[in-house]
Amino acid sequence: MIQYSSFRVEDLGEAADSIPAKDPELKVAVSRLPVVQGGDAIIPVCEPDLSGNEERYVLECVRTNWISSAGAFITRFEKRFAEFCGTKHAVACTSGTAALQLAFYTLGIGPGDEVVMPTFTMVATPNTARHCGATPVFVDSEPHTWNMDVTKLAAAITPRTKAIVPVHTYGHPVDMDPLLELARSRGILVVEDAAEAHGATYKGRTIGGLGDAACFSFYANKIITTGEGGMITTDDDDLATKARNIRDHAFSKERHFWHRAVGHNFRMTNLQAAVGVAQMERVDSLVQRRIDNAKRYNGHLKDVRGITLPPADANVRNVYWMYSILVGDEFGASRDELRRHLAENAIETRTFFIPMHLQPIYYRPEYRGAFPVAEMLCRRGFYLPSAPTLTADQIDFICDKIREAAA
After folding, report:
1. Which residue in 115, 366, 379, 382 is deepest, having the highest Cβ count within 10 Å?
2. How far from the centroid of its chain's Cα atoms is residue 349's Cα?
3. Partners of 213 in the β-ladder
4. Cα-based angle 236, 241, 247 (whole degrees, multiple of 5)
5. Fold that domain 54-280 belongs to in CATH
6. Three-class SS of residue 251?
7. For residue 116, what is the enclosing H or E element?
8. Which ranges in the chain are annotated with CATH 3.40.640.10?
9. CATH 3.90.1150.10 domain span(s) along the chain
10. Number of helices and strands in the chain (H, E)
11. Closest of 81, 64, 23 to residue 198, by C-alpha
12. CB atoms < 10 A from the CB of 166, how many?
């Protein structure tokens, strides 16, 4: 039975100040607003670019009746994505959340196990551990990259730790070498949550092939989209074989309707994969558009007092899934005040994730004061429109409105 928590924001005490205000109402009657793709009256925080062969391939599925979880586009999509990540295998499934759960389940993560992850992440990361019966263990962020603080990992590990989940936050890779060294020395699995990091690299290595497995999301706002959908990438033959079986009810090859394991229905449809194949044909340009947008934003905002730009370590390629900033006291307006000003000019934004240790379903009294960096990020951070369809004029307009709010 599903039980909803009665926990209130006020129950957080001083940490309640970290919880974002309600999203501001967007005003659309702005005569100077540059028109966006499709003639919308707002600049959305994100939208997909489906200007390639997406329609053509979907119609091919419909006209040939291959619309379900069998069809050529699924294997084509998996093959192309594995090549893109530099891995032997890619296993498509219904969502990034399903990819994580399928990876955990296939790797044998279950009741009694602990899974170490950042508290600053989306709720899918701990939820998938819980769905497998495991316990999520949270680690604070480090202030420079906003990723999980790898120096605090060892203190979070116990004899029950089965896996570490580095989350490549907003497209910036985690410092993986020390994380992998620690995990290997303790016999701990590493599952990358790469939902936001398509095409990112760490020391020249593509994200998705650094751990035992990696999980990607293809939700509509991701760099590569299939509407909904996900992918597991891995070099482990056994993991890939089991994942393909478990995603399909664990049907047996020896006879149909014969099941030797408890499976799931995590199958991606051929329709979704058709969109994915079309997206992969333009993957380099879709990634580059995010990077180019960030460069233009950086050029405008680098000298604005009180604005912290998104991180970009020298040894990584940040793909800027969302162009994210922090608003400090020197700016002259709070984060929420700036968001309201942008909304009044038809510019949509989103706040950063609310850390998991502040969530009603995960909060415990001992978490008070334990994750200060994550709470700071939640209190000060938000992201600006980040779609690959953004124009230079739109970015200029957004940055003008940010400067206007600081005046």
Report:
1. 115
2. 16
3. 191
4. 120
5. Aspartate Aminotransferase; domain 2 (3.40.640)
6. strand
7. strand 114-118
8. 54-280
9. 9-49+284-406
10. 12, 14
11. 81
12. 30
Amino acid identity of residue 4, one-letter, is Y
């907003």: which residue's tokens? Answer: 170
Phi, psi (rounded to 5 degrees) for 28: -110, -10
Q: Which pLDDT score is estimated for 32?
A: 46
CA atoms of 142 and 289, how far apart (whole Å): 27
Locate 361 and state its tokens: 């379903």
The C-alpha angle with vertex 134 and arms to 129 and 135, in degrees rounded to 5, equals 90
Whether the CB-CB separation of 18 and 358 falls below 8 Å is answered with yes
Long-range contacts of 39-44 (CB under 8 A, 24+ apart): 41/346, 42/346, 42/347, 42/348, 43/346, 43/347, 43/348, 43/385, 43/390, 43/394, 43/397, 43/398, 44/348, 44/385, 44/387
Closest to 228 in 3D by CA, of 268, 171, 270: 268
The Cα–Cα gap between 53 and 281 comes to: 8
Residue at 355: amino acid letter: P
Place of tokens 């028109």: 35
Please say whether the structural domain 9-49+284-406 has been given the CATH code 3.40.50.1220. no
Rounded distance between C-alpha atoms, residue 217 and residue 97, angstroms:
7
Three-state secondary-structure class, residue 192: strand
SS3 category, 124: helix
**pLDDT by 10s per residue, the chain, length 407:** 788 999 999 989 888 988 998 899 998 754 445 554 444 589 999 999 999 999 999 999 999 999 999 999 999 999 999 999 999 999 999 999 999 999 999 999 999 999 999 999 999 999 999 999 999 999 999 999 999 999 999 999 999 999 999 999 999 999 999 999 999 999 999 999 999 999 999 999 999 999 999 999 999 999 999 999 999 999 999 999 999 999 999 999 888 899 999 999 999 999 999 999 999 999 999 999 999 999 999 999 999 999 999 999 999 999 999 999 999 999 999 999 999 999 999 999 999 999 999 999 999 999 999 999 999 999 999 999 999 999 999 999 999 999 999 96
Written as one letter, the residue type at 253 is K
